[in-house]
């Protein structure tokens, strides 16, 4: 068993995570916090919280303390323990100890622990630690975006964390060139003009084409039903990203729906895939195919069951082997999301439109992630961005 986060198989086949106490049973306090977030948060968030609280429990056992009897100084020692695996009072005779965890990991772990203590304090079950202070927000010249009401909001008190961890330089998100995206699609399936049929996996081509043309996250794509792919019928087709529970713990981030217009060629590819599913017996196996998962098993058991994310990554590995050095070795499906946003910006799309298509809650997220794109001369020099987005209808619409 792992103290850092114990995997739990649920009776219905689902998976969740908890933290075990010294008696080998779920720790009552941590479990109360995790149970709250199982209702509100995505499964991966619950897993991250359980892992972070498991780290806290290991630290408390090593230092002989109880979770409800520690102070802020103890949490400061916990930060040091996260970084180096020892508390500050342990002398490093070798000197020059390298951190065991990066600052991003330390920040995530500490954010979960702070959330746990604030939750327990609100419930009246834990120590009332002061983990945030009141400050006035100042946006300096180095920050590129100021909201319309910044002159008002900057005067209001803002909550700032007591533990100010070292910042981490935000790396530029990886992107693919238009030529590389096309190579990935063709490695999945290609059109045999002589025989007038697709060769390969139409499902896989549709999945990667959807990710590239809409910028949806992989989990959002796996949550789609066939009926979420709305045919144009003379108008512009679109995909309706719809929050729903997925049998393999995939979710729409933030549980917010949005409409994303797509090209006629993507609509046609969906139609070809739908016929392929029907030819394989999907219409007989599923009562209502329109209200069934868009991406399903077509060549492995159980047939027509919702596709697992692990199956997608198996496909990614096969594509990498087939294409070799024609695509980057680190390619993952999420690169197609970054490529989508980059293509839109390189083609002159305004930031608010990109924000809507990407599903960002705030335009500042879009700026922080992709604000460098139009300033990159090397990226601008790559030909093909305008043709890459040809056929997309990126007009903003209400959710």
Kindly summarize this structure in a few lines.
With 399 residues, the protein is mainly alpha-helical.
| Largest sheet, spatial ordering of strands | 7-8-9
Q: Helices and strands: which structural class? A: mainly alpha
Question: Any idea how many domains?
Answer: 2
Distance between the termini: 44 Å
* Overall pLDDT score: 84
Order of helices and strands: EEHHHHEHEHEEHHEEEHHHHHHHH
Shape: globular
Largest sheet: 3 strands, antiparallel
The residue fraction in helices comes out at 40-55%
Q: Helix segment count?
A: 16
Low-confidence stretches: none
Account of the protein in words:
By secondary structure, the protein is mostly helical. The protein has two domains: 6-89 and 98-161, DNA polymerase, domain 1; 178-388, Intergrase catalytic core (hpI Integrase, Chain A), CATH 1.10.443.10. It is 43% helix and 9% strand. It is built from 16 helices and nine strands. The strands form four sheets. A three-stranded antiparallel sheet has the order 7-8-9, with no helix packed on it. It has a two-stranded antiparallel sheet with strand order 1-2. Helix 2 (43-63) packs across helix 4 (103-122), helix 6 (178-188) crosses helix 11 (309-323) and helix 7 runs antiparallel to helix 9. This is Tyrosine-type recombinase/integrase. Belongs to the 'phage' integrase family. Keywords: DNA integration, DNA recombination, DNA-binding. It comes from Micromonospora sonneratiae.
